[in-house]
Model the fold of this input.
Amino acid sequence: MTWNYSNTSVQTTLSAPVSAGDTIISLGTTAGLPVSYPYTLILDYGAATVEVVTVTAPSGGNLTVTRGQDGTSAQSHSAGAVVVHGVVARDVAEPQAHIAASSNIHGVGGPSAVVGTATVQTLTNKIIDAASNTLSNIPSSAITSLVAAKITQPFATLSVTPASASTTAMTVTANEASRSVPVATFTAQNNAVLIDEDGTLDVDRGDLSVDVARAHLAATSASRLWVKATGKPGLIVKKANSADTYDLLQLRRDDDSVWTWVDSSGRLTSRILIAKPVSGDTGNLLECKNSSNTVLAKVDKDGNVSGVAGTFTGAVATGALTVTGAASISGATTATGDIGAGADINVTGNVNTTGETWHGLTLANNFTNRGAGYPNLSYRKVPSPGNSVQLVGQVLSGVTTTPGTQIATLPVGYRPATEIPISVQAGSSAVIGLAVGTDGSIKVYGTWSNGMAFGINGIIPLNL
Done:
């Protein structure tokens, strides 16, 4: 304990009697006494009833004391008893004990010993604080165990070097069954990498990059995950065991709904799947192969679907749908181009063949469209039968025709390989003929009278 002293105190007396059990005393004057506590007073100084007390605090105009100190006993004292602030035996004995002590000194409690510079000692319950303390040149062999250790001070660099290439540089073990907080956290600029309570690596708000310069993450087009595949796969996702039914991969929206996933069997499912080629790309957008790497079906860069043989369930093809073998189509299937197969096409359900939009023809030699309520003469390619042109419309002859009079001309790409005859209905019952030539010309056979109306509805195969 640290004691307080004064050189200016004066001898005084008790202003009121005290009994052996009283802990508050009154003095004639407190002039010159120490203003800090504790300090020593001697009651009945020089008498046989002398008593040493320790003053611990003021109490109004009085003093609170601990009675019977330093080998004396508490007893009654009358008013007027002499009181002095003086030196007692403990003021001399305590420094002597400190000089002789080898433990419990300078305020250090417990069995702590004096720390020397050469003596081998074990330190327990010590806190090394302040920037002036430095620990250096401590080999790993000198650290036998760390229990509940913490590093809270900032370090410019913290490096861990293993003893050899066959030893682990650092191991952090946290096997508590009740653990609910991360084992380790590495934080920089509010981005954190966590070793979670179950040993999982989590990236919170930051980026995960493997084998790439840090500058990549600052690039405008940088992704949050970047893996460079050099001599080995960039990413492998493997089932834990054959009974595991969890998805191998999930892609989710901001509302946490799953939009694309790879299930435990490796099947890819997506709510929306878009295959888009880059400029100059000539490869297929999609290929389906067997175990021998043979392409069974594909979607080329122009959106055409083709296959050796296959089953199409509820398929939609923008462009031609071609199967070089037999095709089995089940469910509603829509193709906006040709549907062709090198063998039978078996259909279960509906096949909707949209074809392309209609194109109007310019009429020649005084032929005109019949007018309101009737279709103008138009043409389009249709997917069934394959590679054909449909010709539909109602026209009026403006003159009496002779055989070979031309009505209109089909453009390049819509012309047959050979001349194709078609029959048309003229008036209420007459059937007359037309011919579509390889040059696209549409000509009449026979004589048509002036003002005759006739309807055309024919299919012109282009590769017959």
